[in-house]
Write a structure and sequence with these properties.
The protein is α+β, with helices and mostly antiparallel strands and about 290 residues long. The chain contains six helices and 16 strands. It folds into two domains: about 130 residues, Rossmann fold, CATH 3.40.50; about 140 residues, Sandwich (Tumour Suppressor Smad4), CATH 2.60.200. It has a six-stranded antiparallel β-sheet with strand order 6-5-16-13-8-9, covered by helices on one side. Strand 8 and strand 9 form a beta hairpin. The longest helix is centred in the N-terminal third of the chain and has 16 residues. The relative contact order is 0.15.
Length: about 290
C-alpha cells in the first residue's frame, strides 16, 4: 500500500476531476490517496482531506501548471517523494504527463515489471535563510525556481550588498535581485534578461532586476559558492521564494542562499529534452 498526495490547481475544474479520477483508481488498488485540506476544499473533495503533518507521501501527483508543481515539490520535500507533473492548462516547463495519459502512467509506476518505462529526473534546489539584524531566530525555506529580494515601494530602487563566500562582491542599486537554480532560469530571471541554463547543470544564477548601475549582467556561480545578500539603506524589501512572499526585510537583514540538502525528484515516462520544450514554448523555427 502506498500513500499518494494529490496537489491540484484550485481554479481549474479539470484538475479537480482528474484528482477524483486518480483517487478512485488508487483506492481501488488498495492505495491511500489524500489532499491537503485547502486543496480538498477547493476541489470539493472533502473526503480526501488529510493533515500534511500527520500523513506521509510515497508519491506526489501535481495536477495543474508549473505553479502547482512548485507547491507539490515543497510538499514532497519532507518525504523525499517523487513528483508526477500532469499538465492541466498551457504548456509548462515542469509538467511531464498529459491528462489523458495519467492512469496509464500510474499503471507503469506501480507495476514492478515496468520499472524500465520511467526514470527519475533530479533537480537541484536552494536553501534560503534569513538572518535578521536584531538577532532573532533564523528562518529558512527551499526553492526549486528562485529566491527574489525586491523593492516594496514603486518608483524607488533598493540597495543590496552581495557577498560571495564571505567576501564583498558589490552593492547593487536595482529594483531587486533574483537568485535562481538552472530550473528557475526560465522563470522570473528570464524576464529580467538572464541566461537560459540547462536544468542538468548545478549552478546558482544571480540576476539583477532593472539595475541602475553600469554592471548589469547576470552571474553564473558554482553551487559551492555561498551568496549572501544584505539589505542596505532605509527602504524595506520583500523576499519571495518560488513566487510566494515569505518575509519583509529591513536594513541589516541578510538572505543567505546555498544548495539545499534535498533535490526535487520528477518522474519521467519518456525522454524529455529541455531544448525541445524551450523550442515549443517560444515557437522557434527549424530554420
Amino acid at each position: 500500500m502506498k500513500h499518494v498526495l494529490l496537489v491540484a490547481h484550485h481554479e481549474r475544474p479539470d484538475a479537480a476531476a482528474l484528482a477524483a479520477q486518480a483517487a478512485a483508481w488508487l483506492e481501488a488498488r488498495g492505495h491511500v490517496a489524500w489532499m491537503t485540506p485547502d486543496d480538498a476544499a477547493a476541489c470539493a473533495l472533502g473526503g480526501l482531506a488529510g493533515d500534511p503533518l500527520m500523513r506521509r507521501a510515497d508519491l506526489v501527483i501535481s495536477l495543474g501548471g508549473d505553479g502547482t508543481v512548485l507547491r507539490a515539490v515543497q510538499l514532497a520535500a519532507a518525504d523525499d517523494a517523487p513528483v508526477i507533473g500532469v499538465n492541466v492548462g498551457m504548456l509548462g516547463y515542469l509538467t511531464e504527463v498529459e491528462p489523458g495519459a495519467l492512469l496509464d502512467c500510474l499503471e507503469q509506476w506501480f507495476d514492478p515489471t515496468a520499472a524500465a518505462s520511467h526514470s527519475i529526473d533530479e533537480r537541484m534546489m536552494l536553501e534560503v535563510t534569513v538572518r535578521t539584524a536584531d538577532g532573532a531566530a533564523d528562518s529558512s525555506w527551499t526553492a526549486l525556481n528562485d529566491a527574489v529580494v525586491e523593492k516594496l515601494e514603486s518608483g524607488h530602487t533598493v540597495r543590496l550588498q552581495v557577498h560571495i563566500d564571505g567576501a564583498p562582491f558589490t552593492s547593487y542599486a536595482a529594483d531587486g535581485l533574483i537568485l535562481a537554480t538552472p530550473t528557475g532560469s526560465t522563470a522570473y530571471s528570464l524576464s529580467a534578461r538572464g541566461p537560459v541554463l540547462s536544468p542538468r547543470l548545478k549552478a546558482v544564477l544571480l540576476t539583477p532586476v532593472s539595475p541602475h548601475m553600469l554592471f548589469d549582467r547576470s552571474l553564473v556561480l558554482d553551487p559551492s559558492e555561498v551568496v549572501d545578500v544584505e539589505v542596505l539603506g532605509h527602504r524595506p524589501v520583500a523576499l519571495s521564494v518560488d513566487g510566494r512572499v515569505v518575509a519583509t526585510l529591513v536594513e541589516g537583514d541578510v538572505v543567505a542562499v546555498r544548495p539545499a540538502a534535498h533535490v526535487a525528484r520528477f518522474v519521467q515516462f519518456a525522454e524529455r529534452r529541455f531544448h525541445r520544450i524551450l523550442k515549443a514554448k517560444f515557437g522557434l523555427a527549424d530554420r
